[in-house]
Amino acid sequence: MLRSSSPQTLDGVLWAEAASSAALRQYCALPKKGKPQGRESTVLAAFLISSPENPLNPTVLSLATGTKCLGAARLGPRGDLVHDAHAEVIARRALLRLVYAEISAENPSSWLVASGADGRWRLKDGHQLHLYITQLPCGVMPVPPSPLEVRREQLDTMVNGYSDVGFVQRKPGRGDTTLSVSCFDKITRWCVVGIQGFCIEDNVVKVLGARLSCLSGKVPDPLKPSKPLFFEAPIPPKEFQQTSGDIPPLTCGYSICWNKSGLHEVVLGTTGRKQGTSSKAASLPSTESLLCKIRLAEAFISLEHPLVTKFRHEKISYRAIKDMACEYQQILELLRKAPFFAQWRAKPTSVDSFTVPRS
């Protein structure tokens, strides 16, 4: 999706308050199912859109909660599990489903417009997309390393096989090590190849800006790295605070998934399936989240898009669909060769080899 033109300059404090209020108001309007109970806490993330007519009244497009992801041993080969159920990742996937719905709707979208005849879409002029998160995304570094530190770290990685500062990090977890990349690194990638423009606390900007600067002269339009703006929002309610008093809170295992087109479901982050799935029904399609890879791919190939209409009646794998987006893959390759991203760990090819059913 391309950027809009004529970006609107916002008052940071006022906008952060408006975005926070809108996201929390939408969250409070949802049923209790999947929300933290007792001492539990979670992370809330929401994508919002602002218009030039009323920039301080943003609309929530998608919303999610969650702090869990699957370990490497539990990654499924059929694309039917949600591997990463952190709030930021789920909110983006819910946004993707909304974008697909907007593109295929009979009535024109209020915030998207077709851009050319090659199937591209962009935000309408003056509209801006934002991301609100109730805490810093996992994987944030306090200070970007200097070029000398980068060289030292590369040497240390070659010698000792690990990296502490300045490189892609995996999500934290207990027991089975996860292969999911940190939310901070995923958000950085979105600034280069996908969704951009969001609201995170102010001390992330130096790190993200430094990481993107190494790509600014290498990436062709329309996928130039987008330098985001950062605003600090008011302190969120207690259920979104990771430290509260002398007794640390427990993390809620559920992820709420919601978007403006009617999506609303709850996923258990430790299984990657819908809440309430029994062990006997664990392989049934009815337990699959609409945000797992195979369901998202089905939604994508149902679109009247030049990239997908040519293979709609053929058997094709999820990996092949992604590889057909040549420009996207070229930019990803540049990203992974950049100093900060050279340690980006690719997941096993088996997790993307499944066949996507045709509608």
Name some characteristics of this structure.
359 residues; A_deamin; A to I editase domain-containing protein; 12 strands; alpha+beta; double-stranded RNA binding; double-stranded RNA adenosine deaminase activity; six-stranded antiparallel beta sheet; two-stranded parallel ribbon
Structure description:
- The structure is a single chain.
- This protein is an alpha+beta fold and 359 residues long.
- The chain has helices spanning 12-29, 87-104, 147-160, 183-193, 205-213, 293-301, 306-309, 318-324, 326-337, and strands spanning 40-41, 44-50, 59-65, 67-69, 84-86, 112-114, 121-123, 128-133, 250-251, 254-259, 264-268, 273-274.
- A 6-stranded antiparallel beta sheet has the order 8-2-3-10-11-12.
- β11 (264-268) and β12 form a beta hairpin.
- The model is unreliable at 1-9, 155-165 and 196-216 (pLDDT under 50).
- It holds the Pfam family A_deamin.
- One of its GO terms (cellular component) is nucleolus.
What is this structure's SSE topology?
Blueprint: H1 12-29, E1 40-41, E2 44-50, E3 59-65, E4 67-69, E5 84-86, H2 87-104, E6 112-114, E7 121-123, E8 128-133, H3 147-160, H4 183-193, H5 205-213, E9 250-251, E10 254-259, E11 264-268, E12 273-274, H6 293-301, H7 306-309, H8 318-324, H9 326-337
Parallel strand pairs: 1-9
Antiparallel strand pairs: 2-3, 2-8, 3-10, 4-5, 6-7, 10-11, 11-12
